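Hi there,

I know you've been waiting on this one. I reran it after we fixed the sequence typo, so this is the corrected version. Both the input and the resulting structure follow.
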Amino acid sequence: MTLSPIPAVMLEPMVRAALLEDLGRAGDLTSDAIVPKEHRATTVLTARQAGVVAGLDLAMLALRLIDPAVEMSVQCPDGSKVAPGEVIASVSGPARAILTAERTALNFLCHLSGIATVTASIVAAVEGHGTRIVCTRKTTPGLRAVEKYAVRAGGGSNHRFGLDDAILIKDNHVAIAGGIRPAIERARSAVGHLVKIEVEVDTLAQLEEAMALAPDAVLLDNMSAEELRQAVEMVGGRAITEASGRITPATAPAIAATGVDLLSIGWLTHSAPILDIGLDYREL
């Protein structure tokens, strides 16, 4: 899968907000006091543990918003696997700017690389089953676009980006509508022909009821592996099947083996640990 970059116009507001939060009211007191204005420096972004890189565009943008004279030379682009000690990129330019933007740049890069890394690990765990790993809307407020990008960098795919992407009828919608049938029927009458409809089911009985109404996809929530196998057989290719709930790297292979099309995993974005990456100074 080709990893297309996110346009800078989408990235700039979140990077600018992060820099402003850090700069406060008086800017970088430490660097401005210690580092001569004309001093230039070369630094390297180095992986301190194995993982997958994501977020270099945000790191570069953080540096250049402080000073456009900063330059980055990338050795390991987003989506690359890196080993401990491997140089991801070199950064050179005005030393004050590099030091001022360092933490913001690393916050984005380490966080997104962490998401890409855990995604890659679970993608590898289900290899050979034809099952795709997808993220959810359980994202950090304001960072959804880049966190979902990081999932793609790790070899995963994206579920909805927001409430306006598609219709996903969940248990509370069903309860308030008075059942699966009225929920699906109302949804279908309210949207255009290009909008997909997915319905969440907890039991095989609910699945049978939903399939009678021909949804585009079914979300099989918290089902056992045996129930998932039966569900895939019941659907028979008439809809996309998506498993969710308590999926871990240990359980993912068995779930993928049931034949479901997608494994939906919220912790890829809401609980992934960072990938430890450092910015190290090098003498000119």
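Quick highlight: The CA atoms of residues 74 and 89 lie 4 Å apart.

Best,
R. S.
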